[in-house]
Structures are given as structure tokens and as C-alpha cells.
Design brief:
The protein is an alpha/beta fold. The chain has 12 helices and 8 strands. The longest helix is centred in the C-terminal third of the chain and has 18 residues.
Length: 300
Amino acid sequence: MSYDFKHSPAIDQVGIEERVARFNTRSIKKGTKVQGLKLALNMIDLTTLEGKDTEGKVKQMCYKAIHPHIAMPDLPTTAAVCVYPTMVKTAKDALKGSQVKVASVSTAFPSGNSTMQIKLLDTKFALDNGANEIDMVISRGEFLKGNYNFVFDEIASIKDLCKKYEARLKVIFETGEISTLDNVRRASDIAIYAGADFIKTSTGKIGVAATMPVTLVMLDAIKDYYIKTGIMVGMKPAGGISTAKSALQYLVMLHETLGNAWLDNKWFRFGASSLANDLILQLEKEARGVYFSKDYISVD
């Protein structure tokens, strides 16, 4: 489907911020809160993307993805684990028999500064080792130069490769680098029309990560595309979301912008590592009436 990316809708920043402020005033009652906390836990891509990652660390994270908290065996699993391509096989083996997906970053994550050949090889390596999902980064330099067709073609090429493996594609913008809400909307349109299954805010590797205004702009792009085509696209805010309260505010915004259909980990994810622990502590508090220390929960 053709689209003139130079004419993506202009964003009313004041209007976006006012809408976000309204979402943050919503009151969530006790029963609904527990449901929301469990839903948020089930939407997490539990993530480790460090130079010091080891097989042991990844295995421990995979165990936590399946068993978030041994003292509460009724908790849902996380949606996925997200690792570097070299750790995909380790994660795949550790998660065997579970419903937890393996996501892998690719395309010269986190900078995206490499050749298309290297980006395709990077992605193919992850897919060959069993990745169910690919989290690619766009070439922000090309985007900021206005070379929108380059970015579109790059995403479409990675999508074509993912299709061969029946893997889903998440496209990361690094919204802290592309800066403006107008740019966020344009990047969203480019990725969606190029075939992204999810659009994702950030790598988590720079200071500015996911924010509610940025996420709302991306949700609006998804909504407009759905109205036009009937095709659903997923959303993944990543980086900086570390509290249960914040996660619930994102879910309120998701529900009121896109509706019930997106309240499922097939269509919404949190890219997070520390968020799971705060969700577990809040669920313990709701179940037992006692708020435990963060030391009570495993770090991995």
C-alpha cells in the first residue's frame, strides 16, 4: 500500500499531553487492579542485553520468565525473553515446553550502523537458532536525513526474511534520538506500512526511553492504520517503565485508545527487566496485605 511519508499527520503536542494527563487520573479498583497487574506481567519481554551476558544468566532469566515467583505459582508467565542473537539457542533450550517466546535483537543493535548485508546475516543467525520474534533497529541517521524510502526498504527486507521463518517483527525507533513527536508519527507510519508486526519505542540503551506521550502518538498511528485497513499492529514501549503503577497507566491508555482487542500479549508488550519484580511485589501486597522488600524477589 503506497503512502507519502512526508505528509504524515502533524502532532498537536499540547493535545497529546492533555490526553496523557487524563489517562493518569483514572482510578483502578482492587479486583481490576489485580487483573491488570497479572496482565502486565504476562505482557513483559523479560530482557537482558549486556556485554556481560552469560549462558547461566540467560538460563536463570528464562526460569524466571516461566516461574516469575515460586511463592505464587498461579502467576502467568512473561510473554517472551529478549536476548542477543548469540544467546537465542540457550534461551530456546531453556524455554522448551513453555509458551514463552524467544525474541532477539538484530540489525546491529543498538546503533543500527552497519551494512544491509550484515543486518540480514545478524537476523538470519537469530532466526536459524530459533528466534520467534525479531526486534530490529532502524537507521536513525538515514531517517533524520529524510531518507524515508531507505528506512522503509530496510524494514521491508527484514520483514521478508522473518516471513520465511514465520517470525514476528518488532521495529525499534529509538524515539529519544529521533526527538520530535512529528518524527515519531512519521517513523510509525513508515514501519507499519513496511510490514512491522509491532512498533517499539526504544533500545533501553540511551537516557531517554519510553514515555506516555510518545507511546500515545504510536498508538494513534496504529489506530489510524487499523481504521483504514482492518489490520492490527502491536505496540511495545521499552525502557524506563519500572513500576506497576506506570504499567497500569500504560494499559489504561492502551484500552482507551485501541480497545479490548489489544489487551493481549499478542498485541502489546513491555520491554523491561525490573518491572516484573515490582508487579510481583504489588500482587503479593494485594494477596497478603503486606508489602515485601525488593530483596524478597530474585533480581534475574
